[in-house]
Amino acid sequence: MHRRNRRITRVAVIGTAATAALAGMLAGPLAGTALADGTTTADVTWTVANTDATGDQDNAEVSATRNGYTAVVWEDDRDTTAPEDTLHTEVYLRLYKDGTSLYEKQLSTGGSGNWRHVQPDVALHDDGTAVVIWAEDPDGNGYYNIAVRAVNTAGTVTGSAQANADSTGQQLNAHVAADPDTAGFAVAFEDVQTGTEPTVRLSGFASISSKTYEVQVNTAGGTHHRPDVAQDAAGNAIVVWDEDGDGNGAFNVGRKVFTPSGGVKVAQTIANVATAGDQDHPSVAANFNGDYVVAWETDQNGTAQVGARSFSAANVAGPEVILPGADPQAGIDDQRRAVVAWAQGADVYAQGLNVDGTSTGRLPQLRVHTTIAGKQDEPALGVNAWGQIVIAYTDDHDGNTFDQVYLGTGLVNSTW
């Protein structure tokens, strides 16, 4: 299931049922041919999410379900000014079912002056309904709110909302997670008010038209940034974020779990074991039962690396695992098998992990893309209930500094 935005400014799933999906993946088309086992770079099928390559497309997120739906969102800036200029950037959504694109849709609607729509995220319900959020500044005044849209499998927007009740200040770095089998979802975002330190807030919805709560996630004091959120089938929301509660300038990964009504299910603590240096930029993913995995950036050993740790639905923690790279993304299936993707140099990598931190039987560490030239970064990761993996990343293989969003399917988090 889910998972982060890189700046201010989840591709097709194989099959509709686990048996058919895995059988199709493991059976060669002809007797005697080599079998694709879903654990090598050669097993990945890549396509480009954006059908219009004009300008710059990047900062993608993906989401995948057990029923064969996969969604990808991205920032789409179709002017030909400098790629880092996000002026007049729009948000696009594309939905796939069993490898077939159902629609591609622009969800944002421009604005006036120096307007921007940035930092999108998407979460899917099992019926293929997408919940998309982004930071919007339609009047170009430099202040953002968190827009929310629900979109059905025909590409029709069925409802709109705003995650933050208070529109003063800045609301940024938002993420969304959806209850797989109801219309419920949760949005976590960073709230910055004038003269105060940033806080993290969480809004829960029973549906796009029914907001049930909004709460401050972090305890009072210090500085709190860049949240991510995951949700299980009971509607519990797991929130992680950059936490500096004592204001000493060193961050840990805050962790807290909320009930469907916004009450505290698991009190605030930290996800990381080692606390030397900074632990920040976390990603979290949960499965149907409420088991979850957290990945984050760490410099505890003096170099930029990735930390990861699994937690059961009963809040029992596994060991901390250290991987290379930065900008991690987390995914998990219904058997508690985790996947972490990350950027390393000019490439994107992924690896599977067991609950105990080992990798035996899981996706081996590999560079996931086949195009080596140029730069590939900003990974996005989706893992469905069966352990099938979808990857997206920002691609600039021709070195012109204008990016496109590449989507990959075919990997599985198992070597059997």
TrEMBL record:
The keyword Signal applies. It comes from the Bacteria. Keywords: Signal. Residues 1-36 form the signal peptide. This is FG-GAP repeat-containing protein. It comes from Parafrankia irregularis.
